[in-house]
Specification:
Helices cover 11% and strands 61% of the residues. The protein has 152 residues and is mainly beta.
Amino acid sequence: MNKKSIVGTVLVAFLFLISGTAGAGASTTGKLPFAFPVFTCNETVNVSGWFRVTTNFVPDGAGGTHNIFHLVAKGTGVGESTGLAYQWNDSFDHSVFNVSAGSTVAGNFVSRTHLISQGPLDNSTFYITAHLTVTPDGTVRVDRFDITSECL
């Protein structure tokens, strides 16, 4: 498994964990700092900035709750080998269905990340799409997990 796959797996797991089971109709918005390395087309870039997170819990009419999660991240980075500046922009859309005790939970995850070089090196774009199912006994099934990267 390459480093991009590991990052994607960690992000998907993280979003499932923070989805939670807040009360139906609840909505939250907040900011979280971030700092981590990103493995780009050209070099490793250490990025930092802020995630802006919005989570909505919507009742589904059948006793379950749907969690709609949206995250936008803005930050900057510095290339480890060149010292070049980078601009980090991304968004995550995450939906979890049937969030209720003792039920099977399904989730969709879509991420679009752009790391823009402020110098002569290529820009990097990453796309992650995943669909996961968690059964009441805790078994996780990955129905789809795609990562695509481009050097532009």
